[in-house]
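Open question from group meeting: does this chain pack into something compact, or does most of it stay loose? Before anyone orders reagents, we agreed to write out a predicted structure and look at it together. Recording both the input and the output here so the notebook holds the full record.
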Amino acid sequence: MKTETVGDATFETWTVDEVAKGIADKSIVVIDVRTPQEYMFEHIEGAFLMPLAFFKADALPGQTDKRIVFHCGSGVRSEKVSRAAIDAGAKQIAHMEGGFGAWKAAQRPYVGTNMATGAPQRVGS
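Structure tokens returned:
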């Protein structure tokens, strides 16, 4: 994990493996900041959707029970959202390096769309 101090806040960049571990041990909440269309087509199972276009940093919950880790397609939008959260007063926030593209490249499981039926389906194990 890479960390950067921004004023009195800590901005973290997590690897795919760190995010997968956090999901498995239920210590994080993953928030997807891609568009609703991107999310519906494929997403990390259990991730919440808060699109960048509608992002409101002051609507984020506290992080006493679980840490928040943002992700997007490549890491650009999630970094932008993370920095906006810090600007709004978050003291510790994280995003996933490489975004969903890195998640898929690491062959992590996700929910995709069955192109024959249009139904969601789990991809990978």
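Observations to bring back to the group:
The CA atoms of residues 30 and 47 lie 5 Å apart.
The first strand starts at residue 2 and ends at 6.
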